[in-house]
Amino acid sequence: MGEPKFSRPRTQTPTHPWKQARIDEEHALKEKYGLKKVGGMREIWREKSALRRHRNQAMKLIGRVDATEGHYAKERQQLLDSLYRKGLLQSGADIGDVLEINVEHMLSRRLQSVAYYRGLAPSMRAARNLIVHGHVCIGNQRMTVPGYHVLKEEEDLLQYSPSSPFADSEHRFRQDLEQRRVSGMEHAEDSGEELERGEGEEFIEQVKKDAEKAPTVDDTIPEKEVE
């Protein structure tokens, strides 16, 4: 039964730990999404476990002879609405579309990924550093958890923290970032790889240095609690 006061782990580890194809795939995902260099695999397993729960629930509803009314119809609609709010499904999607969601869709909804896609950082790893050091907030809530799943309604509220030095549009980091965006380097595949591996590292170091000099965040801004 286990200790009642401790919840069971919700992350399932791989059934076979030494499959080379799976290991290579997870290493590629870890580099693409800027996950932890040590422990990044567990972040992928966490997303795969959540994806597995969504799929199991969808397959249970698909397997019902009649799930168009009653309790199962309500459960079906709640699942679709939940995945829509999480940004994993489009409006008007059907229950069968849940099976088309893959682990990359899950990873792309993490706060780290959304911050990068919205232009707050030049690379995935730089986005992770910004979040961990408290430079990113959603509305008035400072976020320090890179793995937080951003809801669709929260995307427009994502911004730099008011107390962060990067909130100043005249900051060198912001000016360099805007200059690169205007130049269109991110649209070319080869230039994107060069920025990610080369010049992006300079941003990461600058983020770390500025984080040490940054003033203390106002205590009136609550932090979002995420498991």
The main sheet orders its strands as 2-1-3
* CATH topology title of the largest domain: Structural Genomics Hypothetical 15.5 Kd Protein In mrcA-pckA Intergenic Region, Chain A
CATH architecture of the largest domain: Roll
Percentage of residues assigned to helices = 40-55%
Q: Which blocks of ≥5 consecutive residues have pLDDT under 50?
A: 191-200, 214-227
Mean pLDDT: 82
Q: What value does the Rg take, in angstroms?
A: 20 Å
Number of strands: 3
Domain tally? 2
Computed structural class? mainly alpha
Q: CATH class of the largest domain, anyone?
A: Alpha Beta
Number of helices: 8
What do these coordinates show?
- It contains eight helices and three strands; from the N terminus they run ααααααβββαα.
- Strands 2-1-3 form a three-stranded antiparallel β-sheet.
- The protein folds into two domains: 88 residues, no CATH class; 103 residues, Structural Genomics Hypothetical 15.5 Kd Protein In mrcA-pckA Intergenic Region, Chain A (Roll), CATH 3.10.290.
- A hairpin with a 2-residue loop joins strand 1 and strand 2.
- The two termini are 22 Å apart.
- Helix 2 packs antiparallel against helix 3, helix 5 crosses helix 6 and helix 6 packs parallel to helix 8.
- The chain is globular.
- With 227 residues, the chain is mainly alpha-helical.
